[in-house]
Specification:
The protein is built from 9 helices and 9 strands. It is α+β, with helices and mostly antiparallel strands. It has one domain: q2cbj1_9rhob like domain (Jelly Rolls). The strands form 2 sheets. A 6-stranded antiparallel sheet has the order 1-7-4-9-3-2. The N and C termini lie far apart (about 40 Å).
Length: about 260
């Protein structure tokens, strides 16, 4: 169960860090698998979604190893997601992002899926699984605390969404930490001023009445689907006729990638 302090921070600031969710063994296994995928996929890495200059990406990770199912169904993390979205939610996508060494580019401040909270409340929540330490120098995520309550998109309010915002803070933490973020909040990756990549997984969830960023039913191989537990099938919305109707028509939304 999430502590009352953590839930209050998630409500008020829009994010909370959960240290040590991944133990050393699990962290090492995930890191080994994503590096294997970057090696084997090469220039095609991330092609199921979008490529990003200055970063390596992977997409459709549920289809690429049973280890990723442990991430999208982690109960402590899902408790936090449920607090943001309510009980009716599903996985929108599971991707990896690695900021290149000495990459001067920073992401513009954005809201995931270009999402503004509606009359039913919040509908996007992302979880960042830190595969490396997030430091002030290596491309940690920045966030403007409380901006999830504003119901405004930064590209409509700021002259330059890539510029530093006076209210932003860096989300820092050790590898193995999971950051749960209400991604109606203005946020974005920062420049990596080190000689090492900065890696993370992004397990992104959306409310049940919204389309998935990556339509899981269409992307997953039948071989993968046959191995999934009932719980994972539910989280992925594989047997959800409402999701099929929505996500078969509209997918691929990003807050800043075009």
């Amino acid at each position: 169960m999430m502590s009352a302090k953590n839930l209050r921070q998630l409500d008020e600031l829009g994010w909370v860090a959960l240290p040590g969710v991944m133990d050393r063994t699990f962290l090492a296994e995930v890191c080994e698998r994503v590096e294997e995928l970057w090696e084997t996929e090469g220039e095609n890495a991330g092609s199921e979604f979008r490529r990003e200059p200055g970063a390596r990406r992977l997409a459709n990770l549920v289809d690429k190893g049973d280890i990723f199912g442990r991430i999208v169904a982690h109960h402590e993390v899902l408790d936090a997601v449920r607090h943001v979205l309510g009980g009716d939610f599903k996985l929108s996508s599971l991707n990896a992002r690695s900021t290149d060494p000495w990459c001067a580019e920073c992401q513009p401040l954005h809201c995931d899926a270009g999402a503004v909270a509606d009359d039913s409340g919040f509908w996007v929540c992302n979880t960042i699984w830190l595969l490396d330490d997030f430091t002030a120098d290596n491309g940690a995520t920045r966030i403007v605390p409380g901006s999830h309550h504003w119901r405004k998109l930064p590209q409509h309010e700021l002259a330059d969404p890539r510029a530093a915002h006076p209210g932003e803070v860096l989300v820092l933490g050790e590898a193995g930490t999971v950051v749960v973020m209400n991604t109606h909040a203005w946020h974005g990756g920062t420049a990596n001023r080190t000689g090492q990549p900065r890696r993370a997984l992004h397990s992104f969830y959306t409310r049940g009445d919204q389309p998935q960023q990556q339509y899981q039913s269409a992307l997953l191989r039948e071989e993968t689907k046959s191995r999934l537990s009932p719980e994972l099938r539910r989280i992925l919305a594989l047997d959800d006729a409402r999701n099929d109707a929505i996500s078969s028509r509209i997918t691929g939304m990003s807050g800043f990638l075009r």
